[in-house]
């Protein structure tokens, strides 16, 4: 079980996270939602060990993260960060094999190679095994990175999988395929936490939704508990209708269209630079939500 208690994180005088409490049980898929800058990626960096909490504690299977060695954590926790920069000309298979580094000393064994082949097949990148990762699209690179982190903890019971916007560059087919993989792994006993921007995808695949705003946890519960028009407006500042799919019983939202009024006169003369802020030529763009 993953347990986070009273997590705070500050850089100098800026507090990025404050008073975060939550847990993930084996077999559970938790999706984290929030507007840009809400603190989602900071939270996942704390859980991955990239950042150290200013206050609070993180426990994995009853022990503080600091009580594990790096090698031990590598065998039970894997992270797919939003930004994965690879500048060297590695092949797809070589990148996926990097996930097995914690498990062998000099050369990969047959089991390592078998796991690499399995995770590449599951994520749909086997046919690209010999291609350079530098030649891939953003969505293809995300699938390769997913195969890599799956290879890292493939046979580990109760493993923790952390995904930071794992489907941001994928087309709709692979968005669903990736989240269905995460769902299947949770069903096998893994703990899965994913930062997502698509609320409907989160509702469809995750057991619980944790919604954040300004570095704080605002709501944590099932989609039917968390997804209300009021909560969505509070977190995202957008009006949306909430409904239940009668066939799947999944909660889904329909955001209302936003109308942007660009009908304003723009001053072209030099003296417009010195115009008063109240000058009608310099009035801001008006954004309205259709009712």
UniProtKB/TrEMBL annotation:
Part of the ABC transporter complex HmuTUV involved in hemin import. Responsible for energy coupling to the transport system. Keywords: ATP-binding, Nucleotide-binding, Translocase, Transport. Pfam families: ABC_tran. NCBIfam families: PRK13548.1. It comes from Sphingobacterium corticibacter. It comes from the Bacteria. This is Heme ABC transporter ATP-binding protein. Residues 2-239 form the ABC transporter domain. Coiled coil: none annotated. One of its GO terms (molecular function) is ATP hydrolysis activity. SUPFAM superfamilies: P-loop containing nucleoside triphosphate hydrolases. PROSITE patterns: ABC_TRANSPORTER_1 (PS00211), ABC_TRANSPORTER_2 (PS50893).
């Amino acid at each position: 079980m993953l347990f986070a208690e009273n997590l705070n994180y500050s850089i100098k005088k800026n507090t990025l996270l404050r008073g975060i409490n939550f847990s993930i049980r084996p077999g559970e898929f938790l999706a984290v939602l929030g507007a840009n800058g809400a603190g989602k990626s900071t939270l996942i960096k704390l859980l991955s060990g990239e950042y150290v909490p200013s206050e609070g504690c993180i426990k994995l299977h009853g022990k503080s993260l600091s009580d594990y060695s790096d090698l031990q954590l590598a065998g039970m926790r894997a992270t797919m960060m939003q930004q994965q920069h690879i500048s060297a000309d590695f092949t797809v298979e070589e990148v996926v094999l990097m996930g097995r580094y914690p498990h062998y000393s000099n050369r990969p064994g047959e089991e390592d190679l078998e796991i690499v082949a399995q995770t590449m097949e599951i994520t749909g990148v086997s046919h690209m095994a010999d291609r350079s990762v530098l030649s891939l699209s953003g969505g293809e690179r995300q699938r390769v990175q997913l195969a890599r982190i799956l290879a890292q903890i493939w046979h580990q019971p109760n493993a923790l999988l952390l995904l930071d916007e794992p489907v941001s560059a994928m087309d709709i087919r692979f968005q669903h395929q990736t989240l269905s993989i995460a769902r299947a792994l949770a069903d096998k006993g893994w703990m899965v936490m994913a930062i997502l921007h698509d609320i409907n995808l989160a509702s469809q695949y995750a057991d619980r939704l944790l919604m954040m705003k300004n570095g704080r946890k605002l709501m944590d519960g099932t989609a039917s508990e968390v997804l209300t028009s009021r909560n969505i407006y509070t977190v995202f500042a957008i009006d949306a209708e909430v409904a239940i799919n009668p066939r799947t019983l999944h909660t889904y939202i329909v955001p209302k269209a936003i109308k942007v009024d660009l009908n304003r006169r723009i001053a072209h003369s030099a003296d417009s630079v010195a115009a008063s802020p109240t000058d009608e030529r310099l009035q801001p763009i008006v954004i309205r939500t259709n009712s």
